[in-house]
Amino acid sequence: MVFKNKFDFRSFPLHKLMPAAAAVTVMVALAFITMIASATWEVTIIDDGVATQVKTHASTVGELLASQGITLGEKDVCSADAQDPLAKADSIQIKRAFPVTIADQSGQTVVYTACDTVDEVLRQNSIVLDDNDEVVPPRDAVLIPQSVISVAKVDISEVCEDQTIGYQTINKNSDRLEKGKTETLSEGKNGMAKVTYQVVTKNGVETSKNETGREVIEAPVDKVVTVGTKITQPKAVAVMASRGGNTDVRGARVITCRATAYDGSYQTLGKSNPKTALGRTPTVGTVAVDPSVIPLGSRLYIETTDGSWSYGECFAGDTGVSGYHVDLFMGSRSAALSFGSRQVRVYILD
Predict the structure, then answer these.
(1) CA–CA distance, 246 with 263 (Å, rounded to integer)
(2) What is the full DSSP assignment across 216-246?
(3) Is residue 259 a contact partner of residue 269, using CB atoms and an 8 Å limit?
(4) 0.85 exceeded by the pTM?
(5) Domain closes at, from 131, 152, 173
(6) Beta carbons within 10 angstroms of residue 326's beta carbon
(7) What is the domain count for the chain?
């Protein structure tokens, strides 16, 4: 068979070709969509570390998850978006959110997250920290469910305070004043200093305060006090009469003292067989004295200042008292206790 003429598209009218081309394009697209819709996809779903391989006719990730009854929580993370076509995803990874406790100055808050590290959780919850703040565990630490993140806001500041500088008291001995007396030569005055501190607070609570600088604004003035050292000896009193029968007290030096009494019992002295400062066993007539007031070994005569009682002639044979105080030895504990304390005249005979 012989064709007389070949078919020539150029001879075909253009306005009749365009509808035909459009129809062909639509038919091809419909065929591709039908192919995609009827295609079977093999996809691996890894849900919180558990892998499952499924075959599906779903065309998108969202349709696949719905067909498998898989739902995502608000904080769960999926490796693909719901509208992504399965043709581009041969595996889908789902990371489930887990609870983490954030403890800070406002208290404890439980949040759910699928983040890996402490720093990611802080940023996810809009917690902004500076270099001084403290975080435990460290920001790069990997989290696990039920982890606790402790956040401490640390503030470092510098403060200045006025501080009183106390004056000192300077004592100067003087033999122009009697012992036991004092005299103020000049009054003291406190000074003032400006002190700088570095203060560290953690969650609003002060944890340290260290002095970093000090400037003396006004120096203190010391107080000066004169302390007497002069010992005044009582003047001798001439006595024209005798005491105690054969005791002649004429010309003796007389002083007034406070008198107490003691005895040689264990209950009083706390020891047995006591000895005096002269190494003797005390007997009635032994008197304990302060050697700086009454020379040790002196012969004495003692009576009360009102003359109602007399210890009689005795001697300074022991020590253990101070100043104008004499302690009289008695023959029994009851006699010592009943004596109490009395004012006496002590005649220093020799």
Answers:
(1) 27
(2) EEE--B-EEEEEEEEPPPPPP----SEETTT
(3) no
(4) no
(5) 152
(6) 25
(7) 4
Let me know whether 114 and 47 are in one domain. no
| 119-124, Cβ contacts within 8 angstroms, sequence gap of 24 or more | 121/149, 122/149, 122/151
**Phi, psi dihedrals of residue 145, rounded to the nearest 5°:** -55, 145
Tell me the C-alpha to C-alpha distance, in Å, between residue 191 and each of 66, 152, 159, 174: 82, 40, 20, 28
276 and 199 in one domain? Answer: no
What gap in Å lies between CA 115 and CA 135, rounded to an integer? 17
Per-residue pLDDT of the chain (350 residues; tens, 9 = 90+): 333 444 454 554 555 556 555 554 545 445 444 444 557 888 999 998 899 999 888 889 998 899 899 999 999 999 889 899 987 778 899 999 999 999 988 889 999 999 999 999 999 999 998 889 999 999 999 999 999 999 999 999 999 999 999 999 999 998 888 888 899 999 999 999 999 999 999 988 999 999 999 999 999 999 999 998 887 654 443 333 334 556 778 888 999 999 999 998 888 887 878 899 999 999 999 999 999 999 999 999 999 999 899 999 999 999 999 999 999 999 999 999 999 999 999 999 98
Residue with token string 């002069």 = 230
Query: Within this chain, do residues 207 and 277 fall inside the same structural domain, yes or no?
Result: no
Pairing of strands 98-104, 107-113: antiparallel
Residue at which a domain ends, from 94, 119, 134:
94
Q: How is residue 246 written in tokens? A: 């054969």
| Domain of 84, in residue numbers | 41-94
Joined together, the tokens standing for residue 192 give: 């003032």
Give a yes or no: residue 35 inside a domain. Answer: no
